[in-house]
Design brief:
Helix content is about 15%, strand content about 45%. With about 180 residues, it is an alpha+beta fold. The chain has one domain: Lipocalin (Beta Barrel). The relative contact order is 0.14.
C-alpha cells in the first residue's frame, strides 16, 4: 500500500511539474543550420555557362556555443569528388572574420603560428531568413552576396556578384535544398 501511494505521489509530482514548468521556451534555431546541397538545374550562372554535369556544391552550417555560425563549403567536381571551397566561423554582426580556403588553411596550420589572414567574410543580418555577405581579399571587396532561406526552411538561394579573374562581372543565383 505504501509503495502504491509513493508511486502515485511521484506521478502527481511529475504531472504538476510538467504543467507548471517555468523554464524558458527553446530558442528559435537559425534556419541556416544543417546541410545544403545545390540544385544545379535551378541555379543560374550569368554570363554562364553552368558548371559541367555532375558538379555542384554542398554547404554545411553549424552553431557555435558562442552564437557564431561555422560555415563549410565544398565544391563537387564532375567525378563526384569534393574539395574544400571555404571555411569560416563568424557571428552575424557585420564584423569581418577570417575565411579560409585550402591554401590559407594549409599555411595557417603548417606555420604553427597565427599568420595574418588576408581573406575575410562579414555577415549583415537583414531578417531571420536573409543575410548580406561581403568577402574581402587584402582589404578589397571581392564578392558580395545575399543569402535567403524560404520560410519553410527547405530552400536557400544565394545571389552573388563579383568580378572573375578576367575582370568580367558575374552574377550567379545558386539554389540549395536542405538535406
Amino acid at each position: 500500500m505504501k509503495r502504491s501511494l509513493f508511486v502515485t505521489g511521484c506521478m502527481v509530482a511529475i504531472v504538476f511539474l510538467m504543467a507548471f514548468d517555468t523554464a524558458t521556451p527553446a530558442q528559435n534555431v537559425n534556419p541556416i543550420i544543417g546541410t545544403w546541397k545545390q540544385n544545379i538545374e535551378k541555379s543560374i550562372y550569368a554570363p554562364g555557362p553552368p558548371p559541367p554535369k555532375g558538379s555542384g556544391a554542398v554547404r554545411q552550417y553549424a552553431a557555435g556555443t558562442d552564437g557564431s555560425i561555422v560555415a563549410i563549403t565544398f565544391n563537387i567536381d564532375p567525378a563526384g569528388l569534393p574539395s574544400l571551397g571555404a571555411i569560416s566561423a563568424a557571428n552575424y554582426d557585420s564584423r569581418e572574420y577570417a575565411q579560409h580556403t585550402v591554401a590559407t588553411l594549409a599555411t595557417s596550420l603548417g606555420s604553427h603560428i597565427s599568420p595574418k589572414i588576408e581573406r575575410t567574410i562579414a555577415y549583415k543580418p537583414i531578417d531571420p531568413y536573409t543575410v548580406e555577405i561581403t568577402q574581402r581579399q587584402d582589404g578589397k571587396v571581392v564578392a558580395s552576396s545575399t543569402r535567403t532561406i524560404t520560410r519553410d526552411g527547405k530552400t536557400m538561394t544565394d545571389r552573388s556578384d563579383y568580378m572573375d579573374a578576367a575582370g568580367a562581372h558575374v552574377t550567379n543565383v545558386l539554389v540549395f535544398e536542405k538535406q
